[in-house]
Design goal:
Helices cover 68% and strands 0% of the residues. It is mainly α. The chain has two domains: 87 residues, Rna Polymerase Sigma Factor, Chain: A (Orthogonal Bundle); 62 residues, Winged helix-like DNA-binding domain superfamily/Winged helix DNA-binding domain (Arc Repressor Mutant, subunit A). Helix 1 crosses helix 2, helix 2 packs across helix 4 and helix 4 packs across helix 7. 23% of the residues are buried.
């Protein structure tokens, strides 16, 4: 979680306890520790940088209103994930209502990618074809590096459902010619 703010070595739990005691610098530390992650996640849902920055602000305003008295019962990313997701979906819907006449981009024909930007673009197209629930679980696991239990907790679903979605997503990716070569060793 990159930061230009002086690194605070206190654990999230210690920062939460300090915040509950009124230490405003603890909130700054949490903000700088997680802001980049929140923006990346929000952008993933909104596909819009301005909306992602709005979600960042709303997410930390929501968190701030939890104090004093907030108890962190999971990892901070597990707690924040559904907040960011819901705020992002609301922001995206609001933007879509405001700009309802916007046209969809033209589909791109599959190609064999060789440079990293082209590979990312190709994988993004393949990922976009996955059902949203499968794509979400896959990104939470491999981009956000959340455990299956944490994903289940963040989404409010059983771990078995997480495993099923993960299995189905990986099977779909392996079956797609554009992604298959990333699974071959």
């Amino acid at each position: 979680m990159g930061s230009q703010f002086p690194h605070d070595t206190r654990s999230d739990e210690a920062l939460i306890a300090a915040l509950n005691r009124g230490d405003a610098s603890a909130f700054d530390a949490i903000y700088y520790r997680y802001r980049d992650w929140v923006v990346r996640l929000a952008h993933r849902f909104t596909q819009n940088e301005a909306d992602a920055l709005d979600v960042l602000q709303e997410t930390f305003a929501y968190l701030f209103r939890k104090f004093p008295g907030f108890i962190l019962t999971a990892r901070m990313t597990t707690f924040l994930y559904p907040v960011v997701k819901n705020l992002s979906i609301a922001a995206r819907r609001k933007r879509e209502r405001q700009i309802s006449d916007e046209t969809a981009p033209d589909p791109v024909a599959p190609t064999v990618a060789s440079d990293p930007a082209q590979i990312r673009s190709e994988l993004a197209l393949v990922m976009a074809a996955l059902p949203e629930a499968q794509r979400e679980v896959l990104l939470m696991r491999f981009v956000d590096e959340m455990s299956l239990a944490e994903i289940g907790e963040a989404l409010g679903i059983p771990e078995g459902t997480v495993k099923s979605r993960m299995h189905n997503a990986l099977a779909t990716l392996k079956a797609d010619a554009r992604a298959r070569r990333y699974f071959e060793k």
